[in-house]
Design a protein that fits this description.
By secondary structure, the protein is mainly alpha-helical. Helix content is about 70%, strand content about 0%. The protein has one domain (about 5-295). The protein is globular.
């Protein structure tokens, strides 16, 4: 296999793993309280990240002041994203969760003006309108009705995630921040935040069945630690546009996993909403990227866009744009 194909395969695997996270979270929260699931996910991720840091033979292992200053507030905002997202996926389908959260792609440029060449073009707002229509169709189910709680929570999670992504850029660009070390700080912060709320349910976690533990390990080790490290490796070997395109398939995988493993079915209306959501987010991402990279004689070259996947091991704006 050529280097290009190998890199593409890794990026698609990351998108697939992220797409599967919604069904895993839904399954885990059906067996355990949401706050307990979040604590377990963070604690397992933090342990794995600390192990990776300890196992590294190259480079200093100590955290810099910038890594702590950025990691603590980002750990708080990331925990807020996962809190709303996990409650949301517990009350909607995994397919809807993965599709609605992809709104982060078009919401983030509205909040993050880093590297921007003036106001966004009208086409971007048309693409955002397409996504808005898609959300309405996804919430409609078998017919137009009052929005479901889970869908509204996922919509809120997309807004909070977009704010988190914008904050990542503001706190890390131009500073001595290593992705793995920043990630470890965030997982430790998340573990500390959810421990008090989950402490009373820890005996329940100890008696969870193997299937539930498998979901928790999948969320922590594969959807978080593996996806982060694999993404960092892959994006250093391809272009930002190619990485963004491949990682942008995450909502497609969320629908596929929900249908194949979760027994979920798309109605004609929700199927149309899914198609419009994927088309709208891809279109909006392409318009924003072209606008950001457009030559301007009075401005310095633009930095890459900073879209990350919200997991306990997020990406940082060091090398790549990614989806949620």
């Amino acid at each position: 296999m050529s280097d290009v194909r190998r890199t593409d395969a890794v990026l698609l695997l990351v998108a697939l793993v992220w797409g599967s996270s919604y069904l895993s979270a839904q399954t885990a929260t059906a067996a355990l309280p949401v706050l307990l699931v979040l604590f377990a996910r963070y604690a397992l991720s933090a342990s794995a990240c600390l192990g990776v840091v300890a196992a590294r033979r190259r480079g200093p292992r100590r955290w810099t002041r910038d890594e702590w200053r950025a990691g603590v507030p980002l750990g708080v905002t990331q925990a807020a994203v996962l809190l709303v997202e996990t409650y949301g996926v517990a009350h909607t389908s995994a397919a809807n969760a993965g599709l609605i959260i992809s709104l982060t792609i078009v919401l983030t440029p509205l909040l993050d003006r880093g590297g921007r060449r003036g106001p966004l073009p009208p086409a971007f707002f048309v693409a955002t309108g397409v996504c808005t229509v898609a959300v309405g169709l996804l919430m409609s189910g078998n017919g137009f009705q009052a929005p479901r709680l889970g869908d509204l929570l996922m919509l809120g999670a997309a807004v909070i995630r977009a704010a988190h992504v914008a904050l990542v850029g503001r706190l890390t660009v131009g500073r001595a921040v290593r992705p793995l070390h920043l990630t470890t700080v965030q997982t430790l912060v998340g573990t500390a935040l959810f421990l008090p709320a989950a402490a009373g349910d820890l005996p329940t976690l100890a008696h969870a069945d193997p299937a539930t533990w498998a979901q928790l390990l999948h969320l922590a080790l594969f959807c978080s630690v593996f996806a982060f490290l694999a993404q960092t490796w892959a994006v250093q070997r391809t272009s930002a546009s190619r990485a963004s395109l491949l990682l942008g398939t995450e909502p497609v995988w969320a629908v596929a996993v929900g249908a194949a493993l979760g027994g979920e079915h798309l109605t004609p209306l929700t199927g149309l909403g899914a198609a419009l959501m994927v088309a709208g987010t891809y279109w909006g991402q392409a318009v924003e990227r072209a606008h950001r990279n457009a030559p301007h004689p009075r401005l310095s070259p633009a930095r890459p866009s900073d879209l990350d996947k919200d997991s306990p091991c997020p990406t940082t704006p060091v090398t790549t744009p990614t989806t949620t």
